[in-house]
Amino acid sequence: MELDVVELSRLQFAMTAMYHFLFVPLTLGLSILVAIMETVYVMTGRPIWRQMTKFWGMLFGINFVLGVATGITMEFQFGMNWSYYSHYVGDVFGAPLAIEGLMAFFLEATFVGLFFFGWDKLSKVQHMVVAWLVAIGSNFSALWILIANGWMANPVGAEFNPDTMRMEMTDFFAVIFNEVAQAKFVHTVSAGYVTASVFVLGVSALYLIQRRHEDLAKRSIAVAASFGLASALSVVVLGDESGYSASHTQKMKLASIEAMWETHPAPAPFTLIGFPDKEARETHYAVEIPWVMGLIGTRSLTQVIPGINELVAEAEGRVRRGLVAYEALMEIREQRDEASSEARFRFEQNSEDLGFALLLKRYVDDPLEATEEQIRMAANDTIPGVAPLFWAFRVMVGLGFLFIAVMLYFFWRTSFKGMTYPRWSLYAAVAIIPAPWIAAELGWFVAEYGRQPWTVDGMLPTALSASHLSVMDLLITLAGFLLFYSVLFVIEVSLMVKYIRKGPFQDVDATDQWRARHEHRLRTTDGQGPFAEPAE
Questions:
Q1: Which of 230, 346, 398, 458 is deepest in the core (most CB within 10 A)?
Q2: pLDDT (tens digit, 9 = 90+) per residue, 336-351?
Q3: What is the pLDDT of residues 112-130, one digit of tens each?
Q4: Bond prior to 267 in cis (omega within 30° of 0)
Q5: Which of 155, 248, 145, 11 is nearest to 460 (CA)?
Q6: 3-state SS of the chain: helix, strand, coil percent to 5?
Q7: pTM across the whole model
Q8: For residue 420, how many other CB atoms are within 10 A of its CB?
């Protein structure tokens, strides 16, 4: 197969993004769990909670540093590999990324230092506030990045300027409160919380299997199971919100995820399993659940979800209207200030479909010279890979329900069975540690692959977004990134394993202080009264 600059650029960005997202969800979730543990320590004064905060905080710190190292590279790629995209939408896309760096990352990075080096310099309450500021900064970072990413899926609050040939922001608040961005944010951070909860649960289960650090492990399981259950349930609920949003912002993506070739009468069924065939435009051996897709996608019994074939026919019409906009745009470019008001009027009337005309650039240099066959081919290009989306989505959803079951089981054993866990369940908790990362990567695959053939949905095709690089340039940098990121991943895993094997260190000073206060209270009350505490 002939190597293609655009496909290699996509592969490179996908590789660096997926490597980066190995670190992000754990950072998001551990930051909150660590802040919760320190809050309990401040409330109770019990040294075990300080020990837990320091131990899980150390693992958070390792993950945070490597996440930063891999994340910075991604932002440079917008200029290196996707220069036309950066030129075309930089006025809009750059704003949330800049705010993320100035507001969230600086907040997070500053207070990370205070968290690790301020234990003996800050009061307990001050240090707890620092822990929460680190957590807030981590989540704010995700917010602004997902606002930028959500705009690519639903480009609101901006319009194309035919004089500058760029997208320009018209409503900053529309960009911020974009429904796709908000749904992505809450869904992504909830998935990060599940990832951290499964990680804490699995490591704690390993300690119980090894009969080490059992006091810390049982308390960690209690926090992880409670927080993880709430997060896993919210992922499912918020995933439903994403499906509803896609029903009117990314109709082709939703139809492709469901392998829905034809439009069904409302409410549409949900295809539980099947084998999509893109060539035949058919899903073989489909097992359908009536009404479910209609209820998820439209939240009604009467609204129709269009199928792939109907959307392709609609796309063909949009390509033709886009050609009218493209012809008017060429007139405006040639005549500049002298362009007729009639040309500008024709452009404004059809500007929303300009991107569909640009799909023809894949087949012909001048879209106005496109044949009827090329127009049909461009319309068919709006169908992403149906089978990969279909299966990726179902594996992701299946793992989501698995996490609910696991967290519910451990929450039940913690709350009603005296923190006793069968040995098989502990082994199962260790075994599923990689599962949240698999689910998260599949989620991003569905989000990004499902948007193809667009970089900015309906406006800028991916084929036009790449920089003018050679295949050799991309192969060399791809190999370099792959090697560098693999080394970082090995370092991450090695450090995590090292400190997990080492286990939490004993905070002698804090333990002695707590024991002294504990013994004083026992002497004061003779072991009775409201201030008496049971012995450890």
A1: 458
A2: 766 678 888 899 999 9
A3: 989 999 998 999 999 999 9
A4: yes
A5: 155
A6: 75, 5, 20
A7: 0.91
A8: 9
